[in-house]
Amino acid sequence: MPPPSTVPHAEPVATLSGDEPFFIVFNGGSGSEDAAQTRRTIEGKLTDAGRAYTLFTVDQPKHLPRIAEMAVERARRENGVVVAAGGDGTLNAVAAAVLPTGLPFGILPSGTFNYFGRTYGISRETEEAVASLLDARIEPVQVGLLDGRPFLVNASLGLYPQLLEDREVYKQMLGRRRWVAVLSALITLARTPAQLTLDLLSHGEHRLLRTPTLVVGNNSLQLEQVGIPEVAHLEDNRLVAMAVKPVGTLALYGLLLMGAMGRLGDAARVVSFGFETLTVRVRGNRRRIKVAMDGEISWARTPLEFSVSPIRLQLLIPRDTSRLDRS
């Protein structure tokens, strides 16, 4: 893998004929809509448009990587487009299968915040998202890597994965709504978070940091909304790291509020910086640590290596970009 600094800022953009078959990985367990209705909407819109498609239904999360590979293989044989239909975890898993192939990649998102889709004007509303697929162009988009595994929006360790785990519990009880995510965060932050001592190496410079969490961002919309000024670095084949210095629960509530107001970058207790590559070692003989990648929790061996993928994802986005809605 070449170093990120040698990755070109532009690369040839594939074109679409408009007749490519869609191979759709459909996660029936994702999103707040009724899965059966969502499937009927997808099938109805594509049938009405006369577009060939194959739907691969995921019945259990553990089967998602295998089914994604099946869709990729069919798309390679038939010069098609691979489409991920589901939440952030579904988009991540299917993108991971597509990325090395250079195949066109489309999304029908249903994640709570839909940062990845909204960044490129792709709606959570199924009918609108399918319409975007039918009249799309290809945009090569940057992908982050954690130990070689891709992420679209962010990757994190420490408190942030715990917030995500707790959020899923409350969503199961109360539904997939944004206010549920906020309520869950307030409850999680009420517990005193553990502190990590991290040794960071980037661009030949070491930094020792004590923090409850480290988040590495690859999504301009998310960074803009919380007010992190280094968002411009994402256009330079770089990622953005964000960390909070040790604070108490009340201060964490204050930081949550500042993030909601888009002023997190103004907080004295927040550290952020852009980078091309970042090595993270965890003090205390931690050989493994829990990480979150696009909302999916897993364990990773330390040290952790963050970088930008030398391959860009060939994402289908709406052809008419004058009406992009990132709200």
From TrEMBL:
Q: Domain of life of the organism in this record?
A: Bacteria
Q: Which GO terms describe its molecular function?
A: kinase activity
Q: What is the E.C. number? A: 2.7.1.-
Pfam families on file: DAGK_cat
Gene3D superfamilies according to UniProt: 2.60.200.40, Probable inorganic polyphosphate/atp-NAD kinase, domain 1 (3.40.50.10330)
Swiss-Prot/TrEMBL keywords: Kinase, Transferase
Q: Does the keyword Transferase apply?
A: yes
Q: Which residue intervals define the domain DAGKc in the entry?
A: 17-150
- Matches recorded under SMART domains: DAGKc
Key word Kinase present in the record?
yes
- Protein name as catalogued: Lipid kinase BmrU
Task: Name its species.
Answer: Cupriavidus respiraculi
> What's the encoding gene here?
bmrU
